[in-house]
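**Backbone shape codes:**
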Amino acid sequence: MHLDAHLAVALAVLNTTIVSTPIVRRHDRSDDAYTAAASMYPAVVALGRLGDATLIAPEWLLTAGHVANAVGNGRLVTEIVVGGDRYGVDRVVVHPQWRELGPHDVGLIRLTRAVRNLAPLALHRGRNERGLTATIVGHGGSGRGDSRDRVEDGRARAATSRVDSTSNAWLYFSFDAPPGGTELEGAPGPGDIGCPALLIAGGRAVIAGVGSAGYDGRSGPGSYGAVDVFTRVSTHADWIDSVMRAPASGPAPSPTSARAATPQGVALPDTPAGKRYSAFLAAMRAGTDSAILSFLENNFDARELADRPAQARLPNFRRLSDRLRDAKVDAIVSSEPLKLTARLVGAAGTTTIELICSAEAPNKILDWRRYD
């Protein structure tokens, strides 16, 4: 794909149709090959459901800015497993120019103590990425490029893909169907956001990109034809170095807050998913059967209601309303035009709800998930 085409895709990704696509493989290759390849990169670690990060110094992890922001905003990640040991989070630093859905999507997490049993990966500082084959490592869902079916088992997988083009802020990858693509062609995604794109330089793996966003393929997220956008590390290497050189004492730089606080908590974004989320919270706070049914009938995709009508969903949403009636939005965990995950805090405790809108009808909810 030419650079101009990728720039057009990037605009669509950043402004209209960002989607999350799990790591998926070629349909004619075994999953075992991808898990075996990942075993070579133990410095890539999972951040719970938020995404991935890479050890780049004994006390520092590199990830996407919006993932780091979510870690810094709350309690979804209190410990991180690196090399089999558990580490606390000492501080989080997000690039000062990062804005939600914008460039400079890069952040750092400082651990409470140094990792001694694992070698960090170095940063790629050259500008020669275009045309090279990168290895993408993550812990997200597993599947095939010719299918929408996905399995989330938390296992690390590594796929390869060529850097199709670059801009100052980004690296771009396409998920090519065979016979095109690489031998272990694949694409990253939701559980893989913040994952590294690795190049080989001087006989060692170096981090060239950080997973930031993706664009649907021919059959939806993570299918053949998908385009993935990575933050370009070489552009941000000086900033990364400066953060790690800063004194460890004193107040930690605060993560950039994507939304201001309101009486109802952190403000929801003005996106299709944000508007549906606002309607969801209004129904939960009202708590009446009529309010809940009205929300379901007016905001859920017709295919979802055909599988399970609004009346059948009512008991579940009544219970959810009892839990969330006094809850406020404590943090935006992740935000995309068609998907929003927010942490809610009330008298009943903390609940994280994710709403996913339909690409064909962005004003309708296609799916939702609850994490307590």
